[in-house]
Design brief:
alpha/beta; 303 residues; Rossmann fold; Four Helix Bundle (Hemerythrin (Met), subunit A); 8-stranded mixed β-sheet
Length: 303
């Protein structure tokens, strides 16, 4: 993918997330002076935006220290300090994707409906537009519609695709796709997997098998990305946390953030799941999957 999206574009594309987050924070900081009630209101605002308890407490601790050091007395001045605190808390999350390997292999996992296949399609579009040769691995062999959808994306983006028989072994499809990509001198393999519930141990164990097999193929499995629907927020974290018990997650993708009132979930992913956010879905268009940028996100959602 290309360079990070400018902050001005983030402000527009964050949509509902920005509107809800800014409204809550502005209301909390509407007083004439900074009182203890100010901090309580701000805490409530952040929790309501799905920032999460741990991340909220860290933000408020950093904000109190910064306000004291800067001798800030006007609540409205806390907004710019909060922007810096959010950017600082997420600084390590800037969306670097590991491209090492010939080819590099990126695997996408998550529950049903989180947006894995669409994410892969948009990513294939960005990568092929950047001049890279991409192969899609149709690792969801349980639903014919999933392979068909991925095939449509391959046609739209000019990516190659390797499919298996319906109901076949997804790990075999993945292995074949990586070997095919190596033979074709492709740069990148994007692996789609079937959506699954964390409680289905057989399907979760299958993910572990796919990871093992992908690691034995010619390329290098450099990213295992957990795809989360931002609109569900922290309600999805109990399920998401279990994925890390079966595969070695390297980061998260948050989809549908533009339409979610829970913009704070970006901070929750780091504090609760201990995963860097690498990609954000900010709309339905082909170009609406962007590399995560901590500073642009902080300014886009609050300034």
């Amino acid at each position: 993918m290309g360079s990070a999206t400018p902050p001005s574009s983030w402000r527009l594309r964050l949509g509902t997330a920005r509107a809800a987050f800014s409204r809550r924070v502005s209301s909390a900081l509407s007083g004439d002076s900074i009182q203890e009630e100010t901090w309580e209101s701000l805490e409530h605002a952040l929790l309501s935006a799905d920032v999460g308890v741990d991340a909220t407490h860290q933000l408020l601790g950093d904000l109190r220290a910064a306000a004291s050091q800067s001798r800030v007395s006007d609540p409205s001045q806390l907004a710019s300090l909060l922007t810096m605190a959010i950017a600082s808390q997420l600084a390590s999350d800037d969306g670097e994707l590991d491209r090492s390997g010939s080819p590099a292999v990126w695997m996408f996992v998550g529950v049903n409906g989180s947006g894995k296949t669409t994410t892969i399609g948009k990513l294939a579009h960005a990568e092929t537009a950047a001049g890279r040769k991409v192969v899609l691995a149709a690792g969801d062999t349980f639903r014919a519609a999933a392979s068909e959808q991925l095939s449509v994306w391959a046609g739209r983006t000019g990516a190659g695709i390797v499919r298996g028989q319906p109901g076949g072994d997804p790990a075999s499809v993945v292995y074949d796709a990586i070997e095919h990509a190596r033979a074709q001198a492709a740069d990148l393999v994007l692996i789609d997997t079937a959506g699954r519930l964390h409680s289905d141990r057989n399907l979760m164990s299958e993910l572990a098998k796919i990871q093992r097999v992908a690691g034995k193929a010619s390329g290098r499995l450099s990213e295992v990305l957990l795809v989360l629907d931002a609109a569900i927020g922290q309600n999805s974290f109990a399920q998401a946390r279990d994925f890390g018990k079966y595969v070695d997650l390297t980061g998260a993708v948050l989809t549908k953030l533009d339409g979610s009132a829970k913009g704070g979930v970006v901070l929750s992913v780091r504090s609760v799941l201990n995963l860097p956010v690498k990609l954000l879905g900010l709309g339905e268009g082909l170009g609406d999957l962007v590399l995560f940028d901590a500073d642009a996100f902080a300014r886009g959602i609050l300034d």
